[in-house]
Amino acid sequence: MEREEFFKKRIEELANIAYQRDIVTFSDFLNLNEQNMINSWHFHVPGVISEWSGGYEHAERQMVAFHPDALVFPWEYPIDCLKIEPKALKFSEGLSHRDYLGALLNLGVDRSVIGDILVQENAAWFFCLRKMTGFFMENLCRVKHTTILISKVENPKELPKPILEPVTGTCASVRLDALVSLAFGGSRSSMVSFIESGLVFVNGRLVTSNGYEPKEGDIISVRGKGRFRFEGITGHTRKGRCAVKLLRYV
Length: 250
Known about the structure:
- The chain is of the alpha+beta class.
- It folds into 3 domains: 2-68, Ribosomal Protein S8, Chain: A, domain 1 (2-Layer Sandwich), CATH 3.30.1370; 79-158, 2-Layer Sandwich (Alpha-Beta Plaits), CATH 3.30.70.330; 164-249, RNA-binding S4 domain (Structural Genomics Hypothetical 15.5 Kd Protein In mrcA-pckA Intergenic Region, Chain A, Roll).
- The protein contains 6 helices and 14 strands.
- The strands form 3 sheets. Strands 9-14-13-12-10-11 form a 6-stranded antiparallel sheet. A 5-stranded antiparallel sheet has the order 5-6-4-8-7, with helices on one face.
- Strand 5 and strand 6 (123-129) form a beta hairpin.
- The chain is globular.
- The protein starts with a helix and ends with a strand.
- 24% of the residues are buried.
């Protein structure tokens, strides 16, 4: 509880500073629980607007920015994207999200300075606070046993596109537990504990009701499992079941 109160005071402080000094203030990268706490507080500082970004569309880890509603100068989020690739491809090993994250945290930094990590074949991209860019470029030399090269992504068009795997199936009704079960291949009853334990978020907001009905386009994140986008109902079977389509982030 003390940690939550400290976090709340810090967020309120950022909002008040934005108003008092007529500037833009930023949090570090926030996880889904922290984002949900801010959304659930519904606190409001008159004359201040809050906006979110994680460096790319639909990022899971995001920072919140506060700025006066009458701000007249342009601003941008202090986020950089860095690309990691093996120095010698033939000597590289298969690396996972956990491997890349472990290598970054082993440099002694806090998780809050690192945003999402996007892993694709033979490379990974990660988002970080701009003030940490130089540190990572100077100190990250190896991931597991693989010697790597690290570079800053200057052109937004070079950012990787998320890989989305289509998942289709049927369910009696479009309930949260049914969709989570379909997305990750578990039984409907086995997914109830994830939802009731506070591990499932819809568009960054905590949902603990198994019967919650997601809307088309909602992003559903399950901690420890992954996330997917609900594309909607594509039809109905003869027995009246709903045919649905999901896009799972690989």
